[in-house]
Amino acid sequence: MTTAATWAGIASIVVTATAGDVLQSRAMKKIGDLGAIQQSHGILYLVRRVASSSRFMLGLLFMALAFFSLLVTLSWDDVSVVGPASASLTFIANAFAARIFLKERVDHRRWLAALFVAGGVALLAR
Amino acid sequence: MTVRKYLILLAVVIFGSCGDVCLGRGMRDFGAVTSANWRLLLTVLWNPWVITGICLLILFFCSYLTALSWADLTYVLPATALSYILMALLASVFLHENVTPGHWLGIGLITLGVGFVATGPSLTVAAHNPPREKPDPARTQVVFDKGTGSDV
Predict the structure, then answer these.
(1) B151/A53 CB distance under 8 A
(2) Among A24, B42, B91, B126, whose CB has the most other CB atoms within 10 angstroms?
């Protein structure tokens, strides 16, 4: 039976995974096209540039938190509940977060895409 | 969108799904990990399938970051959701997992979602500005020349 603790765990996964994705996206936009940087400055400069971004490192930290939240929540409930719920809700949360924090233009086409993919992932992960 | 950018998105799909399938195949050699045998996780790291899976997932992460450097998050995530489909097909063929009618319905929904987003622009700006496909070269050059340092 899915308990309040499970839903708290799922909420934790969704929040940390979304924060990680948004921070990574913001960091990459700030750095610029990685392919072009690698061609003009070389791979070592690129690695140093990415690794020195505090936003990128914070994003990695949130991704690690999402991973451990997933592991803990999986110890509380079935993967058939936790997996689809967290993956599909993360898609929706990312659309909201990208609109609010990244100022992306999330038009009706992207909302539909997020909803369809979230539904598909929920069905596929069962 | 150039051919190179589509290839990067394809790399995200292929490396992500193949990496997960390799990890899944490797973990089958060990069985369930519990608090009583958590040290098994250290042994797992020497399994060839797990090593291959980790290498592929590192490549996935590199291509994912590259895609995020020139496309919106709300474009990259749905556009690369094909990896869920590829993962289901690979798991069916190589791991002999059962693909149910519900799975096929899920595959159909994801394909529709990818179709919706893939026909739109990959990069947008604030809601009151028109979409643009490529970053401003002048702005990009300034970013290149900034060198290292904190950007928060």
Answers:
(1) yes
(2) A24
Nearest chain A alpha carbon to B138: A32
* Number of domains present in the structure of chain A: 1
One-letter identity of residue A53: S
- Residue-level pLDDT at B39: 76
The per-residue pLDDT for B101 is: 85
Range of the domain at A21: 4-124
B69, with CB counted inside 10 A (0-12, 13-18, 19+), is buried
A 82-111: CB under 8 A from B: 91, 94-95, 98-99, 102-107, 109-110
Q: CA-nearest residue of chain A to B113?
A: A113
Query: What is the C-alpha separation between A108 and B69, in angstroms, rounded?
Result: 23
Q: What is the pTM for the complete model shown? A: 0.77
Give how far A106 is from chain B: nearest CA, Å. 7
**Residue B40: CA atoms inside 13 Å, Cβ hemisphere, count?**
13
Rounded Cα distance between A7 and A77, Å, is 10
What are the pLDDT digits (tens) for A21-79? Answer: 999 999 998 998 888 888 888 889 999 999 999 999 999 999 999 988 887 887 777 76
pLDDT of residue A2: 58
Measured between beta carbons, which residues in chain B are less than 8 angstroms from residue A109? 116-117, 119-120
Is some CB atom of chain B closer than 8 A to the CB atom of A72? no
Chain A residues in contact with B152 by the CB 8 A cut-off are 54-55, 58
Determine the pLDDT at residue B139: 46
A to B CB pairs, distance under 8 Å: 152
Longest dimension (CA), chain B: 58
